[in-house]
Design goal:
Elements lengths: L1 E10 L2 E3 L3 E2 L14 H15 L3 H8 L9 H4 L4 E7 L3
Antiparallel strand pairs: 1-2, 1-3, 1-4
Length: about 90
């Protein structure tokens, strides 16, 4: 199973992405501070969510405010959409 596409909204420095299509190998290129690490961090967030360990993860890295785009002042929700594809 792999991920075919992903959309992220209000996660850390990422306000909103268009649908990002993914392939088996992807390369992130960009200047410092444009959100490459936060894009990767979203996959860690999803993993913790899938393991029913999100509350502990958020407690370890700070409050939920640290995960929202500009904190609670800038965002009142976090959203993501993942479309998966089965390989095989």
């Amino acid at each position: 199973m792999g991920i075919a596409s992903i959309q992220i909204e209000n996660f850390k420095s990422i306000k909103k992405t268009d649908k990002i299509k993914l392939t088996p190998i992807n390369v992130l290129i960009g200047a410092n501070g444009v959100g490459k690490s936060n894009f990767i961090s979203f996959f860690k967030f999803l993993y913790r969510l899938s393991q029913d360990n999100l509350q502990t993860y958020i407690a370890q890295l700070g409050r939920a405010e640290n995960f929202l785009h500009y904190g609670l002042k800038g965002s009142d929700y976090l959203a993501g959409k993942v479309r998966r594809v089965f390989i095989g």
